[in-house]
User: What shape does this take?
Amino acid sequence: MRVCTDPDFNNLLAVLRRDVPSRPTLFEFFLHEELYRRLAGTAADAELDEFDHHRMLVKAFMHAGYDYVTLHASNMTFPAGDMQHLASHSMDESAVILDRATYESYSWPDPTSFDYSRLDVIGRELPSGMKIVACGPGGVLENVIQLVGYQGLSLMMADDPELVEKIFDDVGSRLVEYYRIAARYPAVGALISNDDWGFSAQTMLSPADMRRYVFPWHERIVEVIHAHDKPVILHSCGNLEAVMDDIIDGMRYDAKHSFEDKICPLEEAYEKWGSRIAILGGIDLDFVCRSTPDKITARAQAMLDRTAGRGGYGLGSGNSIPYYVPDDNYFALIEPAIAGRA
Assistant: This one.
């Protein structure tokens, strides 16, 4: 494992502006706890308070070669029912808003009541050249589905579309305010709007319903972030081909993250959309898990070669680095970018 200590956020900023960075640039949404501790040199059994955990993340991201650290701007959430921590679970398991009565009794969070001071405290401690990329507490559609359930939302859209609009408005307006607050902080260099929208074959709602309920709030999220002259990344899983024009021309996102080979291989996605929106990560997670390190490094290097001189690409996985990704495979993925610094 090579340890890096030379972050320069201008490289990621160049990628997000579809320019050519001064060196190969890495992007990952998040890793996993054991890997964070290994990268940061933190003992596996070390007890960390919230701020020490943020400091560990800074070290881990820097030592791995990233020019930023991803942090939630605050602890804001939309409280919902408990879900079993299983590989597969019902998308209705957490539902707490079932009808107008339960909607009226729900206690909505106030974004302004949460503590965002980590963006200042950790921001002041960042190594030179490093910035925070602030992510959200889930997105508009994700939180609505968590509160209402997927089947519940489908039925409610047919039975009471006015209530559906109210719920989307309550979630969306609070996320707009969350991002408005986060974007003000000088240490925040960019923001991630994380909201999964699709299955492998299609969007979770029809494109027409996505445009009616979901996209207007994403337009406002992008607007409040752009008002602070900062770029915003859409992290969204699933097959979004039917709405890519909305993402690029309507919502005006600066970058798209999360790709799967079975939906649209990274190389194809870059050729289709890379001239209009930055492409981040994309080396399929299943490929990273199952392939040998030399094959992973070869594909990563080929992607860097493909995008050299064209810009708008940050190397990373198709989604994230969960615990089941072998460490050697992860290091094989980032190796070409690290080697490119020599």
